[in-house]
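WARN retry 2 of 3 for item q-0093 after timeout on previous attempt; input resubmitted unchanged.
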Amino acid sequence: MGRHERRLLEGDLYKDCPSSHRRRMSNTAESTYFVLQQIDPATGSAIAEARIRVLDLKKLSAVLGCGNTQLSGSWELDPGDIQRLGAICIPPRELDPRLNRIEPWHPIRETPYLVHTNFELPLMLEGRKPLAVFQDAYPVEWLTEMLARFDPFVRSGRLVRRIIDTPFTEAERARFPKFERWRRAFRTPRRRMANRRISAGIESLRQDRLERSPRTDGGLASRL
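OK item q-0093 returned
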């Protein structure tokens, strides 16, 4: 099994699978299942995960310091949070203190293969993803944070980057007054054909002009 493939076993640590506090993301759920993650500070991606079940969402909201039981997004955890979460799990258990983030379970996790979202950087460093493309209206927080993960590896020479900014049309400027332009960011490993790979990616997207509205809630306008 590859490093970033997942074993979806309830309650077990998903070893060898491939944020400000209380950070919002695009998925929403009022579910009894949640995913705990250990986040690699170097890549911002999960290196271990565990699925838990919590029936009392009011108690879970209290642990997270949230006043709403309709939990969404990802939430950073400290060791005290982990201990309290273990006490309200079904069944109660002692959780690994290295787990430091929680998010609702999403049906996409039931696919029999790894979805690349949030694993673009580690997969690229392992040579398993040849090109990553992120795009949205700019400036937007999620895009700035995502690209910052790649910057140390660009500076060290492991990755190549290219950013293409496209001015708004007059209609887009009127529609999106809080934004300045469209931004597309390309990342690829530094190899012999790196620039050609980026150019091919640009060409393939040329006919696919970004038309969706900007997402300022942490959601993704587009990522490949």
